[in-house]
Write a structure and sequence with these properties.
By secondary structure, the chain is mostly helical. Helices cover about 60% and strands about 0% of the residues.
Length: about 110
């Protein structure tokens, strides 16, 4: 049986997953494609760069920029703190006024 704390944690995780999907969909095409190939499909960045006809450093920069854009979207929405190194904190707080968490954002739906 789950506790109230467990339920809140599960709700926060579900919201984070929804937000991530929406945020990825909002990335410019070149960053979304790079991020999906490298981080979701797990393809090797050097191989992807070669297939795309671009330098490895150029492709790597696209992936890093896409990750940075996602981080900024999370900070602007539901993450309320960063650790001392500037990384997202493990605390994710769905906000009542977040259209994604509340289900009001159409792009968060299936």
């Amino acid at each position: 049986e789950r506790t109230a704390a467990g339920d809140a944690s599960d709700d926060a995780f579900d919201c984070a997953v929804k937000c991530l999907g929406v945020f990825v969909s909002r990335l410019p095409d070149k960053y979304r494609e790079a991020l999906l190939l490298a981080d979701v499909e797990g393809s090797r960045q050097k191989e992807i760069a070669l297939e795309m006809g671009m330098s490895y450093s150029g492709f790597k920069s696209r992936v890093q920029r896409g990750r940075a854009m996602i981080k900024e979207m999370f900070i602007g929405c539901c993450v309320d703190s960063l650790d001392s190194d500037g990384n997202l904190s493990p605390r994710f707080n769905p906000r009542d006024d977040c259209p994604i968490c509340s289900g009001e954002d159409d792009s968060a739906r299936g």
